[in-house]
Amino acid sequence: MATFRKRSSGSWQARIQRKGYPDITKSFKTRSEAAEWARKVEHELVLGLIPKVLKGTPRASQGLVFDITPHAISVAFIRACKRAGIAGLRCGDQAEKWNDHA
């Protein structure tokens, strides 16, 4: 649902709030421009052209959905090698191999 408010600068702000989506706002010179934009965006929401977001998803310390550190990548690589039965392969070996060919 769209709401409109007149800002102190004289412009109009349209705000669309819909469950499962982030608030969408935009400012316009006139209320009629704001209303026209809001109708268009609401129509796109109905058609599914605007993707939903993970609202309420817990965020990691750096604002990411997943807290991925270099240590976590190394640990995952070592576990994957063990499961695949590969011994002695280091995380950077393949990158070094490709750099040798460049």
Describe, in plain words, how this protein is organized in 3D.
Helices cover 40% and strands 15% of the residues. With 102 residues, it is α+β, with helices and mostly antiparallel strands. The protein folds into two domains: 2-47; 57-102, no CATH class. A hairpin with a 5-residue loop joins strand 1 and strand 2 (12-16). It starts with a strand and ends with a helix.
In short:
This protein is of the alpha+beta class and 102 residues long.
Secondary-structure blueprint:
Layout: E1 2-6, E2 12-16, E3 24-28, H1 31-47, H2 70-84, H3 93-101
Antiparallel strand pairs: 1-2, 2-3
Evaluate the radius of gyration.
Answer: 24 Å
**Structural classification:** alpha+beta
For the largest beta-sheet, the strand count, sense and barrel status come to: 3 strands, antiparallel
Identify the overall geometry: elongated
Lateral arrangement of strands in the main beta sheet: 1-2-3
List the uncertain runs. none
Mean pLDDT: 79
Strand content: 5-15%
Name its key features.
40% helix; 102 residues; alpha+beta; three-stranded antiparallel beta sheet; 2 domains; elongated
